[in-house]
Structures
1.
Amino acid sequence: MESMNAEAITFRVAVPEDAGWLAGLSARSFREAYQAVWEEPGLSDYINRAFTPDQVHAELADPNSTFILLIRNDEPAGYAKLRRGHNPPDLDATTAVQIQRLYLLAAYYGRGLGDHLMGHCLREAGREGFATVWLAVWPENTRAVKFYQRWGFAVAGSYPFYHGNEVAQDWLMKKDL
């Protein structure tokens, strides 16, 4: 567990017993991030499939995935998911790790917590020996794109995002450590 003194911020790795409340945090933070730009019923359909307690429990059980929880003043404020071993062809290097998810609850936007969470993810990736960190982001999510660019990520290709019967093309962004 890592702590940030000034903000009462801690990080911890999620465990299978966290699946229920982590599913709720995931659904809520995803909805808050996309409700203004993703039409219904598509948004709810995706959330209802991707963030069930059973789905989150299965992801927690995957040895190639790590959920990092950001806790502020003893309350969950956001999380990230690091995923190993699923690199796209453009990054077919075993020294790359994906930040598959990085979300905060909207109440914490603009408070620097995203920076704390990203910094923690990059330190963890470096500690594990990865040379590259990559992620996929919807190009229309300009808030996220600007955040990632500020952290030194650059567009390196495209990456499919599957939702229902549709496939969107996200940007694949990467950063060398």
Note: The first strand starts at residue 2 and ends at 4.
2.
Amino acid sequence: MRIIGGTHRSRTLFTPKSNTVRPTSDKIRQAVFNMINARGWVEDAVVIDAFCGTGALGLEALSQGATFCTFFDKNKQSIELCKKNIQSLKEEDKCQIMMWDSTKLKLPPEKASPATLVFLDPPYKQYLVSKAIISLDDNNWLDSDCCFVIETAKDEIINCPRINILSEKLYGDTKILLGTLK
């Protein structure tokens, strides 16, 4: 798995040795970043990579012009893998890593800037997207103009009253949704 664009283009990322983490493929990440760059969502964005796994989505955003990324995951293996990838790209000064459940967040640190772009790629078919959005919104992590990139199983239904779905695309067994906060 590699960074597909920007300042870290072609740099290799560490990947899990087991099936417990399902990283977004390079092909799907390329398609996602083509869509969100066309909308102007990445440049200067403050990003949250919820359910971060390897951190590939947040690190891709930093490589392509985002200013800061907060990574959330409740899995220790994922947090360690994400840290390793951040260190290998020397992006520690633009990152914050929290071993927190994205569906049960606490308030952000006092000086934290609200996120303008959120990646939500939870385990498939556990219906965690709406819970995560509500947790992020209720705990003041989101800018009022926040945009979302959501990755789910192709047949998973997202029903969250707090977002407007703008676009939906299928890539094999994966569905990508783009949305904004209502």
Note: The mean pLDDT is 94.
3.
Amino acid sequence: MRWKKPPVSVLAPACLYLVVGVAGFAYHFHELLTRQPDAGWVELTEFLAVVCGVFMLRGQNWARWLAIAWMAFHVAISFPVPWALAVHSLFLAAIAWLLFRPEAMRYFGGLGALP
């Protein structure tokens, strides 16, 4: 299989998910080691961010949808804190806009074949 170069509208959010996932996993890892409540769930969400980033770079359409769901989850858990809700909502809107631009749609196989 030939490697498809991702457009910037995919590359930017994919790299963001990779950085956030790896940094978050490393930052919260001590909580897992000390067996704090919900640490496993936190690490799972960080791992999912890495999965999103890697597979978006590989052109997997399901990873784009998982990335949107991952961000929507963060919007949902932000409801008690207005500023967190606003920030997560803005990130969700920006990421969705990037991942559904025409060049991203083509990359993920949604608008015709790539050359």
Note: The chain has one domain: 8-107.
4.
Amino acid sequence: MMTKIVQGQGFRGVINYILDQKKGTEILDSDGVMLDDPEAIIESFNFQTELNPRFRQN
């Protein structure tokens, strides 16, 4: 299988892709990420990017 790597605009797409019920994935470990629901995970990532001065939006 060949994969096509694309750059997204935010964390929403990647979190929804990873947590897709059809894939049967599960989160094994987390540190500093709220795991209540997908929206909480996305907000945790967004908050952490605001704390990183090296991160920039394109």
Note: The chain has a mean pLDDT of 82.
